[in-house]
Amino acid sequence: MNELTILISCPDQVGLVTNITRVLAAHQLNIIAMREFVDEPNKAFFTRIACTGYLEETEKLKNKLLENLPNSAEVSLITQQEKQIAILVTKEYHCLAEILIKNQFKTLGANVKCVIGNYESLKDFTEKLGIPYFFVDHVNKDKAEFESELKEIINQFDVDYLVLAKFMRILSADFVKDYAGKIINIHHSFLPAFIGANPYRQAFERGVKIIGATAHFVTDNLDEGPIITQHTTHVDHNFGVKEMVRAGKEIEKKVLLEALELIFEDRVFVSGNKTVVFK
């Protein structure tokens, strides 16, 4: 018995669900779960279907679905295989540690192929868990040279996604284009109110009552890519800067891991600068 996840996005029109389910039934596929959403302003249809059955040739099913969908439809047929990822880091360990521990115990839903850092701070920790660590120094290099070295390492591995686990270098438009739709980042939700260094100190000095974090896809516009998930937590006057930082790191870990879980389970569609997320 095969397990199959089907992702479809296309212009909306009457009868789409009927057409899709008819094709699946003709291929003796049993629908376990089906979620759909219509973006009314843009007249766009999205669906995620989990199904089971005996399917020898996925390409034939894909072509049959396309024949019964509007022009410009996009169809992905995904077997139940784990995603492969590379992680980019700087010095902060909290997000990397969460990912590597889950990877170690096979609960991540993906395989970490390597970690790349522009400092050596996290090398020992990474290698203790059996993951290759590559140090790429950014000092005295222009962005093009630095990113060329990054890509040389990344392209040694057949990765589905790049995860920026508190990687603090701004990536160029050319780099982002090479991995379009494959780079996931995490940042504090103080942007744009608290841009720059020490956002938690700025938040503390401003006396904020809520802090948060955002996981998003990376685009050319810094920290403005399609948002995958967000969370907040309440703070009060009892929180000093250290407590604010600690609370911020906890929520950053939570948000990043939730976003990765959604992506690894193929629950996220990108639609312009927004996402459709089937939880």
UniProtKB/TrEMBL annotation:
Gene3D superfamilies: 3.30.70.260, Formyl transferase, N-terminal domain. Belongs to the PurU family. The gene is purU. The active site is at D223. The keyword Hydrolase applies. Pfam families: ACT, Formyl_trans_N. Residues 5-80 form the ACT domain. Pathway: Purine metabolism; IMP biosynthesis via de novo pathway; formate from 10-formyl-5,6,7,8-tetrahydrofolate: step 1/1. InterPro entries: ACT-like_dom_sf, ACT_dom, Formyl_transf_N, Formyl_transf_N_sf, PurU, PurU_ACT. PROSITE patterns: ACT. This is Formyltetrahydrofolate deformylase. One of its GO terms (biological process) is 'de novo' IMP biosynthetic process. It comes from Pedobacter frigidisoli. The keyword Manganese does not apply. Its EC number is 3.5.1.10. Catalyzes the hydrolysis of 10-formyltetrahydrofolate (formyl-FH4) to formate and tetrahydrofolate (FH4). GO terms for molecular function: formyltetrahydrofolate deformylase activity. It catalyses: (6R)-10-formyltetrahydrofolate + H2O = (6S)-5,6,7,8-tetrahydrofolate + formate + H(+). It comes from the Bacteria. Keywords: Hydrolase, One-carbon metabolism, Purine biosynthesis.
